[in-house]
Design brief:
Length: 101
């Protein structure tokens, strides 16, 4: 395993102790791979995924690439899903990745 991945997993483990989603304020977890970006809203108390979207999903298939514009569209789609599920606030789980603003 590369050293940068080992450091990310260590950060992820340290963050997971403090970041926890509830029914009132679920957790928004993000993951990035070389091919796609993924986001899901999770209720940790119930152990359920409330909403999920990915840039390689059926709504984005062939339209987006892994760029800033693609991730912005992913965020807008996640906001629509959250509004449809009546989710007003979330806890952001950066999953060990650095936060860029």
């Amino acid at each position: 395993m590369p050293d940068f991945e080992r450091r990310r997993l260590r950060r992820k483990k340290a963050i997971s102790y403090s970041v926890r989603g509830t029914a009132a304020r679920p957790r928004l977890a993000v993951f990035r791979s070389n091919k796609a970006f993924y986001a899901q809203i999770i209720d940790d108390d119930a152990g359920r995924t409330l909403a999920a979207v990915a840039t390689n999903g059926k709504e984005f298939k062939g339209k987006l690439k892994n760029t800033k514009e693609g991730v912005a569209a992913l965020g807008e789609a996640m906001a629509k899903l959250a509004a449809g599920a009546k989710i007003g606030a979330v806890v952001f789980d950066r999953n060990g990745y650095l936060y860029h603003g």
